[in-house]
Amino acid sequence: MKTRITWKTEDGHWGIEGVDLSALPPRVYGALYKLKDLEDQIEIIQNLDTPDYEVQLATEELLGVQHG
């Protein structure tokens, strides 16, 4: 993924440039958190150094495959 909407740090902090996440209604915060997770999954899939099993898991998560 060339450009993310969200940013993240190695220690797990994340956000969107210019947005105060703490001021958002819970549903909006939740939607943006899901966007961050989707961007993370896409990065895993696009990274050529990612092991095949991680690519498979990320793909299944994006497709909504239930594990159980």
Can you give a write-up of this model?
- By secondary structure, the chain is mostly helical.
- It has a domain at 25-68.
- It has helices at residues 26-46, 52-63, and strands at residues 7-8, 14-15.
- It has a two-stranded antiparallel ribbon.
- The longest helix is centred in the middle third of the chain and has 21 residues, at 26-46.
- It is globular, with a radius of gyration of 14 Å.
Shape: globular
Uncertain segments are none
Distance, first to last CA: 30 Å
Helix content range of the residues, please?
A: 40-55%
The helix/strand series, from N terminus to C terminus, equals EEHH
Supply the number of helical segments.
2
Q: How would you classify the helix and strand content by structural class?
A: mainly alpha
Tell me what portion of residues adopts beta-strand conformation.
5-15%
Number of E strands: 2
Rg value: 14 Å
- What's the average pLDDT? 91
Major beta sheet, strand line-up: 1-2
**Biggest beta-sheet profile:** 2 strands, antiparallel
